[in-house]
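Per reviewer request, we include the raw input and output of the structure prediction for the construct analysed in the revised manuscript.
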Amino acid sequence: MLIGTALLGVGGAAIARQPEPIAVPVRKEALDKLIPLQIGNWTYRDASGIVLPPPDALSDALYSGLVTRSYVSPDRLPMMLLVAYSNVQDGMLQVHRPEVCYPAGGYHLSPTQVEQVPNGVGGGISANIFSADGISRTEQVLYWTRIGNSFPTSWLDQRMAVVRANLDGMIPDGILVRLSTLAPDMPAAQADLAAFAAQLVESASPAARQLLIGRA
């Protein structure tokens, strides 16, 4: 009886501590409308020419919304934008990082570096940058992942962000925001990438801003 009572107590505590989703589901159509067509001095052009994650069953289960766009500016480098959103980050399914999809497309990557990027509304984003050399072009890439209100910069950080949220009784949402441009090296592109990131957040509606940077 003592053992049974103890097991019931443990089971009850586990049920009480069961993590629950904290984000309101966002459908793909809604996500597409939330991303602005005009971002600072950049204007939407089309949705072609962007490196995508390799199609597989995991990607289909992982993302509830995926937006791809390219933007042009009269005096800055053109930008390619990918926004991949997941309503649920449960430790089993987590946002793919670009270091996976670029090599799958035949690109050779430079070492990833972490940079603090202004978010356009008085804060900062912990973002990753790298160069991707392909057969016919070279891309400079800046991206960040948000898990709940954290900006993990590695797979380990990402998993720990999910674990911390689960211990607090929450299943967090997650988003990958990837910016890229065609340029020979990162110094030639970094200022424009950072400016586009800041103006993306600044141009966004409050609902879109919440998706992009959480409560940061």
